[in-house]
Amino acid sequence: xxxxxxxxxxxxxxxxxxxxxxxxxxxxxxxxxxxxxxxxxxxxxxxxxxxxxxxxxxxxxxxxxxxxxxxxxxxxxxxxxxxxxxxxxxxxxxxxxxxxxxxxxxxxxxxxxxxxxxxxxxxxxxxxxxxxxxxxxxxxxxxxxxxxxxxxxxxxxxxxxxxxxxxxxxxxxxxxxxxxxxxxxxxxxxxxxxxxxxxxxxxxxxxxxxxxxxxxxxxxxxxxxxxxxxxxxxxxxxxxxxxxxxxxxxxxxxxxxxxxxxxxxxxxxxxxxxxxxxxxxxxxxxxxxxxxxxxxxxxxxxxxxxxxxxxxxxxxxxxxxxxxxxxxxxxxxxxxxxxxxxxxxxxxxxxxxxxxxxxxxxxxxxxxxxxxxxxxxxxxxxxxxxxxxxxxxxxxxxxxxxxxxxxxxxxxxxxxxxxxxxxxxxxxxxxxxxxxxxxx
Amino acid sequence: xxxxxxxxxxxxxxxxxxxxxxxxxxxxxxxxxxxxxxxxxxxxxxxxxxxxxxxxxxxxxxxxxxxxxxxxxxxxxxxxxxxxxxxxxxxxxxxxxxxxxxxxxxxxxxxxxxxxxxxxxxxxxxxxxxxxxxxxxxxxxxxxxxxxxxxxxxxxxxxxxxxxxxxxxxxxxxxxxxxxxxxxxxxxxxxxxxxxxxxxxxxxxxxxxxxxxxxxxxxxxxxxxxxxxxxxxxxxxxxxxxxxxxxxxxxxxxxxxxxxxxxxxxxxxxxxxxxxxxxxxxxxxxxxxxxxxxxxxxxxxxxxxxxxxxxxxxxxxxxxxxxxxxxxxxxxxxxxxxxxxxxxxxxxxxxxxxxxxxxxxxxxxxxxxxxxxxxxxxxxxxxxxxxxxxxxxxxxxxxxxxxxxxxxxxxxxxxxxxxxxxxxxxxxxxxxxxxxxxxx
Lengths: 440, 440
Description:
Two copies of one chain form a homodimer. Chain A has 16 helices and 19 strands. In chain A, the strands form three sheets. The first copy, chain A, has an eight-stranded parallel sheet.
């Protein structure tokens, strides 16, 4: 056999540098990597591979990249909505996390979250949570690719009752996972500039710098945070992070809503990346990040859904749709954030934002074979004049039929191949019934 | 048999006046109407009905009401996006409509549109287009309920090459359908205050007034329109419409983005209704309607998706999600447009907005049995602490399993029972291939 897998009979949206769209395309995969991408030759009949996947006229595109998740929070989906951020966090989320987010439950929530992501076409995620060793283990079992950041915060947190141990925990975690798997890459996730001291931030960044890992941090999410940092440090969150030496190409600034012109120039100068989370910013009413300005300054911006406790599912198709629309109305300009830009943001730019741009995010020779196939036979995807428009404005996570990660078929005809979904759902329902009972 | 249909084993979100949510609920239907709504008695085993529908633990709710559609425009879905409104309309949509929107194609687009709406849980729509007689006929065949408005505009339009005939066409249409069906209610849809003269507007309103029908009009959609009416008539669109006597309880103002305090008081005073179309306003960059202010003034506001050429599918679940979020970020207040308010907007308020509040929009004794069942077994709806949160923030149209309209099962286990979906799709694909070829 010349190839392991052949994918044919679909429209390939490559998201390569030219943004080539190939009608009636053909992809050949060997050893987890993409060997060839082309249109189907005349009189071609697919053969010479262990597995031949017929896309049945659908859209073949790179797997989506979710640059901001808190995967185990699936367990708290919809438990509290429509509340001010501080009330939501302090009265609901933090107490629930303290009580229920032990390793067994983190594992359960992670399995559910990975299942959801895979079934809605996400092949790579960038996570930040506590008990991240457990999250990473669950992710590995699910077959998803990702960057998994152990949480660091100067308060008691799940698994770290004494914050004095937060840096050590993160360091041990990073060392353990550093060369463990090609799919699971460790990282450190500092909660924010207002919940971590300068010393904590610097120590955490040191761990990632010395291991060439991604450093993630919620930054400039709310006006409240901005004011707090301004009054404590006399600078905006971005300027404060620059001053203490935290900005470089392996720093991912999550949210980045309350930033000014100078902040944007600083981010651009240091080559730091941004995770844009439009739906989370809308639902929590924190604000709208100036993404078109980021793009003008050549900053790499990926899309993120945030955790399910706030936003309430990790479907990146929904996130693309909203990302395309929110900036149009915000600037009263229907030409900004066109469908192509948004598709790039959900794939190649997302991959670049989390340090995996050379591995995933596009369908090109030599890249890992992270590929999804969208079934375009549903009435809401008929007719199809432009597959790129459909990806952003009409398709939903539930239209994803097949998912391939590193050449391995993970979802086939909407069935998860690596996880026992029904078993996971039963266990989550049992736990939720308990949580519900104890809250009343 | 005491009943025609019994629905059991699900959580009923009634959307009645108390917004009662009934766990393990039971609905009995007779002659198309809801006879009883209750919780299941102890030791109950459903019997005594021709049809017994097991909701399998899902959410049972009123069918959704889409208060603004241009159904046949499914044919132009995704053909042009990310463009300024006037370029989009004049270079793309109007020429394509002139060329292709004949009765045969309007029928095809309408069948596709009705299929999509039904499959995503919409049981009632409020449409405005040309060749509306054809749209109404297609809708009747599909089994959907709706208000269908013949389009009136002072330009040549599909089916009315000479605008002098627009009023007569609308009048004949209204007379034909007035007592034709309990499901299909005629209406007149004036395109806007800037594309219809004062005389046209008054004549059109006279038809609807004398027949007690809904009068629909796009109003205050864009800043451009606002400026145009201001310079022509020295008043805002709303004040102009009031001055010429067009506002009353059977007037539906669609979009209503560019309105001020006084406009809002005027709309409230006359009891006119509003169709809120958040995604369309975002994508076309026309703006964000001040919906929380409308609600403070007790104006009845329904949700609408607009036509598929602009917004690009009629899934009201997506529209609910965005409606809940856009006002939160616009006002930087996460408590506005809570999930309950949004569910009401997509059901009972929508029904009230289009003159059908006594018939549909809630699950209550005596109402028409317009009911949908949401499958809650998918991972993105696990766990379920609060079904109302799930409806707005997590569910998608593709989660709707069964649809009942006027007591009749129209979608069963995601299969359309009245339409030949594959036949429709094949024909639309053929037409789209022709349109694509001719455009190149």
